[in-house]
Task: structure prediction
Amino acid sequence: MTTVTHEHEHVDEHAAPPAPTGWRRLTAPGWLRVPWMIVVFFGIGAGITVLVRWLEGWHPIWKGSIITTVELTTVPLGFLAGIGTFDYWVRYATGAPTAPEDHSGHGARSWRDYFRVNTDHKVIGVQYLVTTIFFFLAAGMLAMFVRAELAKPGMQFFDNQTYNGLFSVHASLMIFLFVIPAFAGLANFVVPLMLGAPDMAFPRLNALSYWLLPMAGFMMLGSFLVPGGAFATGWTSYAPLAVHQPLGQVFFNMGVQWAGASSIMTALNFLVTIITMRAPGMTFWRMPLLVWANFTTSLLVVIATPFIAGSQFFVMFDRVMHTHFFDPGHGGYPLAYQHIFWFYSHPAVYIMMLPGFGIASEVISVMSRKPIFGYRLMALSLLAILVLGFSVWAHHMFVSGMAPWLRVPMMATTLLIAVPTGIKVFSWLATMWEGRINFSTPMLFAVGFVSMFVIGGLSGIYLGAVPIDIHVSDTAFVVAHIHYVLFGGSLFTIFAGIYYWFPKMTGRMYNERLGKLHFWLTFVGFNLTFFPMHLIGVQGMPRRVADYAPRFADWNLFISIASFGLGASTVVFLYNMIWSWRFGPPAGGNPWRALTLEWQVTSPPPIFNFDEIPQVVGSPYEYGVPGARHAVLNGDRAEVGELEEVRRT
Amino acid sequence: MICVAIFAVVAAVIAYSIWKFRAPPDDESDGPPIHGHTGLEITWTAIPTALVVAIAIVSAIVLAKNGDAGSNPLHVDVTAQQFAWSFSYPGHANLTSGDLRLPLGRKVELKLRSLDVIHSFWVPEFGQKQDTVPGLTTKLVITPDRVGTYPVICTELCGLGHAVMRTSAIVMPAAAFEAWVNKQGKALAGPAGQAGKTVFVNNGCNSCHTLKAAGATAKIGPDLDKLPAEAKGAGKPLDAFVHESIVNPNAYVAPGFPKNVMPQTFSQLPKSQLDALVRYLVSSSRSGR
Result:
C-alpha cells in the first residue's frame, strides 16, 4: 500500500446538490414524500387483507384487528420508502440508471442533515445515540410510573392491565431501543475510525438499519393507544399467555421484528467492516478491545437474533392464523417458546454487555496511562463468553418444568462463564494498579461499572446455582440482579462511552463538574434503588405485581423515593449534553492523549475520516513505552519501515 | 460468604487505587508499561474455575436431595388457572380445597397442572418453586416442618389478575389435618347452601369476585352481589344467566370488563357441584340485594 487515491477530495463542490423544486419536492426522498407513501402502503396492506378475506368468504371482511396487524408491516415500509432508504436499490434492481454517488447524502453540514437518510457512519452514530436517548427517557418515565404504583401496597394510580403494560413496555424499550442500539450507535461512530477506515463497509445498509429503529420504538410506545392497552406480558412475552392477549401484544411481536432486523443488519455490517476494512498493519492482535468487543457482539447478534424473530412470529401465527405452536390442546408445546426465546435472550445479555466491556477497556487504559493488562487474554475471554453464552439458555428455565436432566449441565456452564468474566474484572484492576489515574467522568463511570458489575455477577452466581434459583426465581431478587447487570453494567458503560467520545463527536468538551455530579447522583441513587430489592426478593416479594403484601411496604416506599432521585439525575446529564454541545469549550483533537486512531484526527473528524489511510505499526495501548506508536498518519513510508523494525527487535 | 469476600477484594483494590494512584491534575506522565503477568493470569483463571466447580457439585447434590419424595408421601394435585389455585387430595377421595392444607412433618409430592397459561407455584417459606405448564404435569416435593399459615403466590406473569393470584398454605398438626379432611368431606355432601359455598371457595371464585355471603372482596371480575341486575341487562332469568356465565363466560360480558378473562374451565365441574354453586349464587345474590 503506497498511496490511497481519493475521488472525494473535492467534497465541498458536492456539498449542496440542487434542491428539488415544485412537484419534484413531493417525489424526491424526504419528509414530504413520507405522508403520501404511508397512505399508499396503508392502502396496499388494507387492500390485500380485504381481498383475501373477501375471496375466502371470511366475515367481517373489514376487521380492524387483522388490518392493524398487517399494517404493522406495511406502514413502516411506507415510511422507509418515503424517507428514501430504498431509492438506490430500487433503481438498481429495476435497471434504472442509479444516481451517481455525489456524496450529497454523506456527512452533515447542518443540523438538517441529521434528519434525513445519511450514509456517513458518524452521522448515523449520532442519530442512533440521540434516538436511543429519547427512548431511554421514555422508558425511564414508565419506570417512574411503575415505582409510583409500587410505593404503597394496594392499587393507587393504575389498574392491573395498565400496570402490566407499563413494566412490559419499560423493559422492551430499554432493551431493544436503548441498550442494544445505543452500543450500536457508539460503535458506529467509533469502530471505522479505530480501524482506520473511511466508513462502514455498507453505508446504505447502515442508514437503513438506523431508520428501522424509530419504527420499532414508536410501535412499542404506540401500543398504549390501541384498544385493550399496551402489551402486558413482560418483555419475555411467554406463550401461551401472549397468544390470547389484547391487540397491543402484536405491537410487541412486530416491534421486536423491526428492532431485530436493525440489529442483524448492523451486526453484518460490523463483521464485514472489521474483517475487510482494517487499515494496513491493523492485525487482529493490534485491534483495540472495543473493536474486539463489537466483533464478538456482532457474531452473537447474527447467530442469535433470528431465534427471537422466530419465536415472535410463532406467537403471532398462533394468534392470527390459528396455528398451534404453543397450544397443548392441539399438539403444541408451551415450553418450546421459552427454549427458542432464551436461545436468543441469554446471548442477548452478552449483546448488551460485551460492547460495554470494550468501552471500559478503552477508558480504563487511557485514563490510567497504562497498557491493558493481559491484552490477548482479554480478547480471548470475549470469545470464551461468546461460545459459553450459547450453552446456558436454560438457566432461565430451572423452574419451568423442562427436562430435569438439563438443569445440572446448564448450571455448570452458567457458573463457568464467571471465569472469563472474572479474568476481565481482574485485568481491569491490574490495569489501574500503579497507573497515573485521571478520575474524569468517563473513568468514574468505568470504575463504577466494574464495582457494580461485580455485584451483578456475584448475584448471578447465586441465581446460577439451581437450589437457590428455585427460591428466588421471578422475585425482586431477579429484578435487582438484572438491574445490576444492565444498569450498573450496560448503562454505566454507555455513559462512560458518551462522555469519553463526546469531545470527538461534537468537537466540544462537556462540563466536568456536572459530569461528576451526574455520576455521583446516579451511583448513589442506583444503589439505594436496587440493592434493597435483593433483600425483599429473598423474603418473598414477587416481581411483576402491582399489589404486594403489607410487610414489604416500608422497603418499597424507600425504593420508590430513591428511584425518583435516580430519575432526576438524568436531568443533569441532559442539561450537560445539550449545553456543552452548543457552548462547551473546544476540545481539540485528542483531549485524553489517547493512542487509538479516532483521536489522531480532528474533532469532529473530517467527512471521510482520514486524508490518507493510516499505517498501523503497533499495539493501541503502548502507554509508558518510550518511542512506541500505534499508527503513522500522513507520514513518510521510511518512518513506517523503521518503526516496524523497532517492533520486531 | 465467598461472594462477599470476592466483592471485598475487588472493592478494596478499587478503593486503594483511587487513593494511591490518583494523578495530580498537571501530571502528564504515563504509568509503568506492564503488559501482563502470566502467573497472575493463570491464578485468577484457575481459582475461580475451582470455586465454581465446587459450587456446581454442592448444588447438584442439594438438588438431588430436594427432589427425593421418599417412600410414603402425601399426594396433592395442584390445579392452576387464571387466577386461582385449587388443590385436591387423591388419597382422600379427591377432596378439593381452595387452600393448601398439609400435615406437619410428612413429605408431600405436589403434582401441578395448569388449565390455561403458565403459572408458578411458590411458597416463600418452603423455599421451593415450580411452574405449572398447560399440557404438562410438573412435580414438586416439600416437607413442611413448622406449623403456620403461609402465602401461596403465583410468580409467573399470567395476565391481569396475576398480582392477586394467591391463597394460603396451612401447615397443621397431623391430627388437626385428619379432622379437617373429615369435615370437608361432610360439607360437600351437606345441604345446598353449604355445599355451594364450599364449591365457591374451593374453586377460587373468591380470588376474582366480590360476594358478601362468602366474605369475598376481590375486584378482578364483576361483583356477584349485583348478579340480578346483570341478568336483567342480559335479558335472562337469573338462574339460567348464572349457569351460562359459569360454563360459557363469553356469552355475556358485563360492561366494563374485558372478554376472555374468566376461565372457561368451570364447565368441567361435576354436575352436582355446578348445580350447588348456581343455587348458592342465586340465593346469596338475591338476599344480598
